[in-house]
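Dear colleague,

Thank you for sharing your sequence with our group. We've completed the structure prediction you requested, and as agreed, I am returning the results in plain text so they can be pasted directly into your records. Please verify that the sequence below matches your submission; if there's any discrepancy, let me know and we will rerun it promptly.
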Amino acid sequence: MNRNMKKQSGYTLIELMVTVAVAIIVLAVGIPAYDSMMANNRAISQANMFRAALNMARAEALGRNLPVTLIATNGDWTDGWSVYVEDVYQTDGFSKLGTQESTENTVKVWGALETGSIVNTNIKSGGPANDLTALTFTGLGEIVGGDAVNFEFSQTGSKGAQERCFCVNSVGQIRSHKAADDPCGTSGANCLAD
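Please find the predicted structure tokens below.
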């Protein structure tokens, strides 16, 4: 052997191929789990924003001693929602409540939810009713109309117990729970069963 030749160091082709194969396997397992984790986080985040809106609407109603409405943007909760103070307190059955007029003061507006968000509503007296587009609290913090309402938030692609249910009972108390613990509308932990 020639003494002038230096020993070469580096990776062999087989070592490189094994490393690439391991990296591909890790990515194949990790990317779907990451997507599911992101969907779960979006579901939780959006449910928390809605809970904040419910709390704000009730607190504003109590603080101002006036009706305050939480209303879906364009009649669809996935398009966002806003809280506004009603300036007309009707004695004829609250006929104009839940329809925002130009003179009514908007307290806060939330933007549209992420793509893949699902919001369902249920009303105690009428069963499933995904046409509920507004919820008005009286100056006493109660729901106008007196029927308990459930809101169910979920996200396409989320796995596990990320679906959230919000119950607003007739006196305006807001409760929340994971749908996996108690699906919306099925048991006593839910206001529709009260």
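Summary note from our side: Helices lie at 13-64.

Kind regards,
the structure core
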